[in-house]
Design brief:
The chain has 162 residues and is α+β, with helices and mostly antiparallel strands. The protein has one domain: 4-Layer Sandwich (Double-stranded beta-helix). 17% of the residues lie in helices and 35% in strands. The protein contains three helices and twelve strands. The strands form three sheets. Strands 1, 2, 3, 4, 5, 9 and 12 form a seven-stranded antiparallel sheet that branches. The longest helix is centred in the middle third of the chain and has 14 residues. The radius of gyration is 15 Å and the shape is globular.
């Protein structure tokens, strides 16, 4: 994966104010500290059945297109949703609502921030993976995972099935 594939997306994201998610405003999960993020592709609406295209996809179609282009380059597993996270250091959690494999890749001028993934469902061992310009595929619904701290500006793309 070539670093320069991310130049356009990085530039677009730095120009765009991603929404702030925090527990105070009740739009952030318990294991996540305050951070900025966006959600593209399909979402499950809270009070309706079925799936619909996300608000961010409609508000930022040019970012959505670029994220889909990168997804086609880096993902082996199918996906219908993409989360962009900025500078989030997530605590140990599982993504119980996601189905099957997720693909994670990070970009930007940062150091650290490795993704630590449980070796298997019953193990107490975690393996640290660098996701910098490198796609990691794993089942986040059954394997606990968290990030190590990072310095600099780090964006992560999470491709998954909602
Ligand atoms: Fe996760």
């Amino acid at each position: 994966m070539y670093k320069n594939e991310f130049d356009k997306l990085f530039e677009m994201l730095e120009r765009t104010k991603l929404k702030k998610r925090s527990q105070k405003h009740n739009n952030c999960r318990k294991n996540f500290d305050e951070h900025h993020s966006a959600l593209f592709g399909l979402v499950k609406p809270r009070y309706k059945s079925g799936k619909q295209i996300s608000r961010d996809s409609r508000d930022h179609p040019e970012i959505y297109q670029e994220v889909l282009r990168i997804g086609a380059l880096v993902c082996k597993a199918p996906f219908n949703s993409i989360q962009i996270l900025k500078d989030l250091q997530c605590k140990a959690h599982r993504d119980s609502h996601n189905q099957n494999l997720s693909t994670v890749i990070a970009f930007g001028p940062f150091e650290g921030g490795e993704l630590c993934i449980q070796e298997n469902e019953t193990s107490e061992n975690f393996v640290a993976h660098s996701t910098k310009f490198q796609a990691i595929e794993f089942d986040g619904s059954v394997l606990t995972h968290f990030n190590l701290p990072h310095t600099g500006t780090k964006y992560s793309l999470v491709f998954f099935n909602c």
